[in-house]
């Protein structure tokens, strides 16, 4: 899928029913729910993930962010949390995407690619051909002693993300350091299917309605003007 005039907007690190309702009311297309991670913000209990996932309307995607790398563990976690999309923030080590799809029919699979250099392009191309529904390009680093698997608040080389978006046949979400002030630039430079934002919309760790409204306004304004 190529560029879209109005990127989908995923609000990540949702921490409560109140934040979920705010994001939905403001026009989010998807909500991200973060399970246990080696580092980073936004982690909530699986009980809270289930509670939020069950109240999200079916027209809005509920993303379970998982750091599990074993297909059996991912399947069990999804069945406990009931999100309709799995966001794999690390590489699969045991099992395949086909195994996940067979066990979880109707659940979408989104693989995160952490942009660390040109090698990420080859990884993205390979994963895009492996049966996932979408890629999400983020600014983490799996090579560190304590892995960074998202929520860094850093942008990465968007020219690399643009090359990935141009060379794969699945939708691409852009994440990492997005905020109201750079949303338009990100859309113009990468032309992603969707934007994924967390820390750029928060004040003292809490989702800020004014920042959320400003971010969505930028996205819609650029869509109305066109991306060219």
Please tell me how large the radius of gyration is. 16 Å
Following the backbone from N to C, one meets helices and strands in this order, namely EHEHEHEHEHEHEHEEEH
| Cross-sheet strand order for the largest sheet | 1-2-3-4-5-6-7-8
The CATH homologous superfamily name equals Aldolase class I
Please give the alpha-carbon distance between the first and last residues. 18 Å
Q: In percent, how helical is the residue content?
A: 25-40%
Please give the largest β-sheet.
8 strands, parallel, barrel
- pLDDT averaged residue by residue: 94
| CATH-assigned fold name | TIM Barrel
Beta content comes to 15-25%
Principal-axis shape equals globular
Low-confidence regions: none
- Number of helical segments with 4 or more residues: 8
Structural class of the helices, strands and pairings?
Answer: alpha/beta
Task: Please explain how this structure is put together.
It is a single chain. This protein is α/β, with parallel strands linked by helices and 228 residues long. The protein has one domain (8-225): TIM Barrel (Alpha-Beta Barrel). It is built from eight helices and ten strands. It has helices spanning 17-26, 46-55, 71-81, 97-103, 119-128, 158-167, 183-190, 209-225; strands spanning 8-11, 30-34, 61-66, 85-88, 108-114, 134-138, 172-175, 194-197, 202-203, 206-207. An eight-stranded parallel β-barrel has the order 1-2-3-4-5-6-7-8, surrounded by seven helices. α2 links the parallel β2 (30-34) and β3. α3 (71-81) runs parallel beside α4 and α5 packs parallel to α6 (158-167). The longest helix has 17 residues, at 209-225. It is globular. The model has no long low-confidence stretch (mean pLDDT 94).
């Amino acid at each position: 899928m190529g560029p879209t005039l109005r990127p989908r907007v995923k609000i990540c690190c949702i921490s409560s029913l109140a934040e979920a309702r705010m994001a939905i009311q403001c026009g989010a297309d998807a909500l991200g729910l973060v399970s246990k991670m080696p580092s980073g913000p936004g982690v909530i209990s699986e009980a809270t993930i289930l509670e939020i996932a069950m109240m999200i309307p079916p027209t809005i995607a509920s993303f379970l962010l998982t750091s599990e790398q074993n297909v059996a563990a991912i399947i069990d976690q999804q069945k406990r949390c009931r999100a309709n999309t799995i966001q794999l923030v690390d590489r699969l080590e045991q099992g395949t995407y086909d195994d996940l799809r067979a066990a979880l029919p109707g659940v979408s699979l989104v693989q995160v690619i952490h942009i660390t250099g040109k090698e990420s392009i080859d990884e993205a191309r390979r994963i895009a051909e492996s049966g996932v529904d979408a890629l999400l390009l983020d600014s983490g680093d799996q090579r560190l002693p304590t892995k960074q698997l998202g929520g860094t608040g850093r942008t990465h080389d968007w020219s690399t993300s643009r090359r990935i978006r141009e060379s794969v046949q699945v939708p691409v979400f852009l994440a990492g350091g997005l905020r109201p002030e750079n949303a338009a630039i990100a859309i113009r430079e990468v032309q992603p299917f969707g934007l994924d934002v967390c820390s750029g919309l928060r004040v003292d760790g809490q989702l800020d309605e004014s920042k959320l409204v400003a971010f969505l306004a930028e996205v819609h304004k650029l869509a109305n003007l066109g991306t060219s």
